[in-house]
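Running co-folding for S-adenosyl-L-homocysteine.
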Amino acid sequence: MTSLPLIPVDPDARGRRPAMPPRHLADLDLPGRQAFVTELGEPAFRAKQVSNHYFGRLVRDPGQMTDLPAATRERLAGTLLPTLLTPVRELACDDGATRKALWRLHDGSLVESVLMGYPDRVTVCISSQAGCGMACPFCATGQAGLTRNLSTAEIVDQAVYLAGVAASGAVAGSPPRLSHVVFMGMGEPLANYSRVVAAIRRLVAPAPEGLGLSQRHITVSTVGLVPAIRRLASEDLSVTLALSLHAPDDELRDELVPVNQRWKVSEVLDAAWDYAATTGRRVSIEYAMIKDVNDQPWRADLLGRLLAGKLAHVNLIPLNPTPGSRWDASPKPVEREFVRRLREAGVSTTVRDTRGREIDGACGQLAAAEDRDIEPRTATA
Ligand code: SAH
C-alpha cells in the first residue's frame, strides 16, 4: 500500500457538493417534523399522524392516510415522504428467506440492502454510503470507491421499506416483524457518522417517532475508525459494535484493512474494549477467513491472546467470492482448527452463515451493479 485512504472525512467537507436528497420525515426528530409541518401551514399534530403511518403502520401511500384531510393529503404526505428509494430489482434465495433489494437514489446512485429471515427473528442489513472509501481489497464495495454519504432518511427508509416487506408475510417461516438491523451493507457507517447516529435514533425511538427497535438489536460494523468508535461510546446508545479485524498483526492488517495504516491493531482494540466497558455490550470481532492469507494456526493463537478475557465474541466469515478477487475462502478443516484454537484460548467463536451468496448479497459482495445477469430467481419489487 502506498497511499493512505481518505478517512473519516465526509465528502461534503471536502468542498464537493454531493447531491443529497430532499428532506424527509425520517431526517427529523418529532419536534423537527412538527416545525416542518408548521412551515407548510398545517397544524403540528399532523406530524404525528404521518409519522404513525410511516413508522407505525409502514404505510407510505398518501391514499391510505384517510385520517388526513383529502384536500391536503397528497401535498402533505408527498412533502414529508418524498420518494428516496426506487426499487430497481429484488432477488431472493434460500426459499425466500434472503432477499436482496437494489435501489436507485434520486441522483442515480445505486445501493443495496438485504433482508434475512430466521425462525426467531428478521434482520435487515443496510447501507450507509453509496460505495465505500475504505478500499479493503477483498470487498466488492471497496473496489469502486465512495460515491457519497447517504442521508439519514435514505438509511432509515431501507429498514422501514423492508420492514413492510416482512410485515406482508414475504419471508416465509419468520416472524412478520423486523427485529434486527445491521449496518453491514455498503459503506463505512462511522465515516458518515452524524447521519448514521441520527438513523439509529430513528430506528430505536418508539413509534410513532421511530421504528421502536431495541438498541441491543442494532449492530454497527466498522473498519475501526478509532475517534468515531470513541465518540459512539459517548452517545448514550448501547448498540452492538462489530469490528472488522481480519488480522491480528499490523503487517497483514495494513494490507487487508488499509485504515490500519492510520490506527493500529492495538489502538483499535483499546477503543473496542473501552466501548465494551462504557456500554456493557460485547464487541463482535469480524474475521473473514482467507485461504493462506490470515488463517494460519499462529494467527489464531495470536488473536486468542489479544482477545482472551475481553468482552468479545469472534465471528468468522468464510470469504465470499468477489469479482476478480485473487483470494479464496479457507478450507473447512483449516477453519475448524482456527475455531478450535480460539475456543481453547477461552474466546467465544462462531462461524457466520453465508446467507445470500448466490445473489451476491453476502458480506462484501454488495456492488450495486444493475446489469449483472443474475439467475432467474428475480422476485417482484
Ligand atoms: N464497512 C463496514 C461494514 C460493511 S461490511 C466494515 O467494514 O465493517 C460487513 C463485513 O463484511 C465486514 O466485516 C467486512 O470486512 C466483511 N467483508 C467484506 N468483504 C467480504 C468478503 N468478500 N467475504 C467475507 N466478508 C467480507
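Result summary
The radius of gyration is 21 Å.
Residues 92 and 377 are 6 Å apart (CA to CA).
Job closed.
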